[in-house]
Amino acid sequence: MANYRNVLVAVDFSEESNALVRKALEIAARNQASLSLLHVVEYTSSMYAGDIPLPEDLNLDRDLADQATLKLKALAEENGIPDAAQFVEIGIPKREIVRLAEERAADLIIVGSHGRHGLQLLLGSTANGVLHQAKCDVLAVRVGS
Ligand code: AMP
User: Does this model's pTM top 0.70?
Assistant: First the structure.
């Protein structure tokens, strides 16, 4: 198997995120690869835009991104991942995961097989989307039962 050099792990802050990060760290260490950690704040502005006028200064996505940055920092610190390797993006998770992977020249993306969207699909919708859109290898780590 080829050695990976840049690994990207995407977390949704579900219960399994810590185990997923630990597994990603193991894989990165075994390959002597760098590891980037990403959380995507799902794009909300479009969900609420409709007939109801929103106050102009309401920046829900920015507020959520600020909270997510703190959460990601806590998860990263617990696992010894430096600030420069932590990324919070706003948008559609599968798209942002693939986009950042390309930007960081990742050659392996690690996602959980299931996340907060549950076990109703054999492979979670984000994992599935990433698998179909990524130009690099994708590892779906089985999490939970
Ligand atoms: P799901 O499609 O919700 O079952 O999620 C499967 C996996 O995709 C999760 O275990 C994460 O690795 C990744 N994922 C889902 N949502 C996000 C998100 N908002 N930000 C980063 N990664 C995510």
Answer: yes
